[in-house]
TrEMBL record:
The lineage of its organism: Eukaryota, Viridiplantae, Streptophyta, Embryophyta, Tracheophyta. Oxalate binds at H105, E110. The keyword Acetylation does not apply. This is Germin-like protein. Residues 55-202 form the Cupin type-1 domain. PANTHER family: GERMIN-LIKE PROTEIN SUBFAMILY 3 MEMBER 3. Belongs to the germin family. SMART domains: Cupin_1 (SM00835). It comes from Protea cynaroides. CDD domains: cupin_OxOx.
Length: 212
């Protein structure tokens, strides 16, 4: 009986207690190696410095553009320390008429906190197409579940700022209008697949720089 217990104990320790060598505190992105589905390879721990974990989102993004808004990401591609940790963050700046158009982050859920101004935000569920809308003021937060189409619009008439964090180091960002009208997606197929007419598609392609 005692022997069996000791044997079980030995097996337990040999199989389930990791050796020191296999414990990994972090996997700071090694930008010199290619990125795979699981993220970047890890830098050698000896080459990691505190700078790999620090970034600044103090500066406003440039909102002089068609959406009058800017998204400044601190994803794994910008902040190597978040690689492998399942988190990241970004800053949103919205000029008075700014809008982050309907978009999705295929890789992660989002939580937003308004730190200045007022923002109307919403998302659309995937099966019922239910719209969840709210105008948020300073200090309010809102959750956007992974993969769902959502947007943020300045609702205050003054500059608005928010920070958004993600449950992924590389959540991705696909803006619906850019996917439809800012590339070489043939107009005929855009019309077929969206039910928009030729004039509407040509106009949007003109505004957003699409061809075809
Ligand atoms: C690690 O740092 C050393 C010394 O600075 C450098 O020579 C080497 O290329 C670095 N290795 C990697 C994988 O970055
Ligand atoms: C902001 O972007 C606009 C348009 O690209 C550009 O003309 C302007 O110089 C930029 N402003 C700053 C401060 O970088």
């Amino acid at each position: 009986m005692v022997h069996i217990f000791l044997l079980a104990l030995c097996l337990f320790f040999s199989s389930s207690v990791p050796s020191h060598g296999s414990v990994q505190d972090f996997c700071v992105a090694d930008y010199l190696a290619p990125e795979g589905p699981a993220g970047y390879s890890c830098k050698k721990p000896a080459n990691v410095t505190v700078a790999d974990f620090v970034y600044s989102l103090a500066k406003s993004g440039n909102t002089t553009n068609i959406i009058n808004a800017a998204v400044t990401p601190a994803f794994a591609a910008q902040l190597p320390g978040v690689n492998g940790l399942g988190i990241s963050i970004a800053r949103l700046d919205l000029a008075p008429s700014g809008v982050i158009p309907l978009h999705t982050h295929p890789g992660g859920s989002e939580i937003l906190v308004v730190i200045q101004g007022k923002i109307s935000a919403g998302f659309i569920s995937s099966s019922a197409n239910t719209v969840y809308l709210k105008t948020l003021k300073k200090g309010d937060i809102m959750v956007f579940p992974q993969g769902l189409l959502h947007f943020q619009v300045n609702a205050g008439g003054t500059k608005a700022i928010a920070f958004v964090s993600f449950s992924s180091p590389s959540p991705g960002l696909q803006i619906l209008d850019f996917a439809l009208f800012a590339n070489d997606f043939p107009s005929m197929l855009v019309e077929k697949t969206t039910f928009l007419d030729d004039a509407q598609v040509k106009k949007l392609k003109g505004v957003l720089g699409g061809t075809g």
